[in-house]
Write a structure and sequence with these properties.
This protein is an all-alpha fold. Helices cover about 80% and strands about 0% of the residues. The mean pLDDT is about 95. It comes from Desulfonema magnum.
Amino acid sequence: MEELFELRTCLEQGRYNDAMALIGEMENMSKDDKISKVESFTIVLLVHLIKKEAEKRTTRSRELSIRNALREISRVNKRRKSGGYYLKEEELRETVHEAYEDALDNAALEAFEGRYSESELAEIVDEEKIRKEALQLILERQIKGK
């Protein structure tokens, strides 16, 4: 909010270079916020995909959580007015990659009632397969636009 007041002041005083610099900062802050939210929902998605593969089963609750995470990733990532997405495919791939360790840690607490450590659970699941599935689901959801 402070940035908006400063932007107004710059514009009122005719300091357009300063105003443009502030707009750039605000754009970066907005994108960082979007990336953070997408990463959080990606962790949720990955946790459920890891548990699904590890336990070789799914539940309605798990499938609902997967659907909701995909919906939120698509919603947060979508540019409202200009169309398109904040994070392109390569950035989404990187986000999935970076989120995997946190997801594995969380899944270790939940899968098999927490009987396995993170490293033990990592040996049970195929990380590459799960990451590819997550990215594919995210991209398919964006194509559907729902």
